[in-house]
């Protein structure tokens, strides 16, 4: 990972604002490729994508989020286990945009649990070079999304030493992701598909996307306390 960062990062921090494309390709990609590409049997690969992730999605409960495109994903030929959303540092104070992306990550993770019969998926939200890691788990048919931790990646070689104190933290986060999401045992015996749920006259326990949309889209009040906010710099 360090070698990839040294090869990609500029020697000193630039003062010009970093746009999303540059943020993805120069700062985030070297770290994510090192952390999430796997040469094991699963052959998982991190990639930026510009296509609908769930092309065969027949779940009409999730028409909006699953027909949108995550910025990146971790997948192989059979399944997708991770999703990435990226925002520039200029959007850090826009709670509506940040929370909307967090909601999208949750829907992507939940849909992947159902579509691929998984027990765990993971999500990463990048706001500038501030990374937040989440894991989405199927617990007895209930989808639970938990924040693992957050870390800031360096913007130049000059800042590279600032990452050293966080190696243990980063190692623990990646270990949790690999144990739960990359494992061959990552399959669920309790996932209920939409068809099966209808046949059993039951519904998912989590809120439907249309309900969440009604809650979040009525007003845009940026003065309210945001419980998901993290300082970004």
Question: How is the topology of this model organized?
Answer:
Elements: H1 2-8, H2 20-36, E1 45-48, E2 72-75, E3 80-87, H3 95-116, E4 120-127, E5 130-139, E6 142-152, H4 167-182, H5 194-199, H6 209-216
Parallel strand pairs: 3-4
Antiparallel strand pairs: 1-2, 2-3, 4-5, 5-6
Helix pairs in contact: 1-2
Q: Shape from CA axes?
A: globular
Count of individual beta strands: 6
- CATH level-3 fold name: tt1808, chain A
Largest beta-sheet details? 6 strands, mixed
Task: Output the strand order for the largest sheet.
Answer: 1-2-3-4-5-6
Number of domains: 1
Low-confidence stretches: 191-204
Structural class: alpha+beta
Helix tally?
A: 6
The overall pLDDT, averaged over residues, is 82
Q: What fraction of the residues are assigned to beta strands by DSSP? A: 15-25%
Helix-strand string? HHEEEHEEEHHH
How much is the radius of gyration in Å?
18 Å
Question: End-to-end span in angstroms?
Answer: 22 Å
């Amino acid at each position: 990972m360090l070698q990839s960062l040294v090869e990609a990062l500029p020697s000193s921090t630039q003062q010009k604002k970093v746009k999303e494309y540059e943020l993805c390709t120069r700062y985030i990609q070297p770290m994510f490729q090192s952390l999430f590409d796997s040469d094991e049997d699963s052959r998982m690969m991190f990639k930026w994508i510009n296509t609908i992730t769930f092309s065969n999605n027949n779940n009409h409960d999730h028409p909006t989020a699953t027909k949108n495109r995550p910025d990146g994903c971790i997948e192989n030929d059979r399944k997708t286990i991770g999703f990435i959303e990226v925002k520039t540092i200029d959007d850090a104070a826009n709670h509506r945009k940040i929370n909307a992306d967090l909601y999208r990550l949750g829907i992507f993770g939940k849909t992947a649990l159902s579509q691929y019969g998984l027990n765990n998926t993971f999500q990463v939200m990048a706001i500038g070079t501030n990374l937040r890691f989440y894991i989405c788990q199927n617990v007895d048919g209930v989808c639970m999304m938990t924040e693992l931790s957050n870390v800031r990646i360096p913007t130049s070689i000059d800042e590279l030493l600032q990452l050293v104190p966080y190696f243990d933290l980063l190692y623990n986060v990646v270990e949790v992701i690999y144990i739960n999401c990359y494992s061959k045992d990552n399959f669920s015996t309790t996932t209920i598909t939409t068809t099966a749920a209808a046949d059993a006259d039951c519904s998912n326990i989590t809120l439907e996307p249309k309900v969440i949309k009604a809650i979040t889209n009525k007003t845009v009040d940026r003065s309210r306390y945001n419980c998901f906010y993290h300082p970004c710099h």
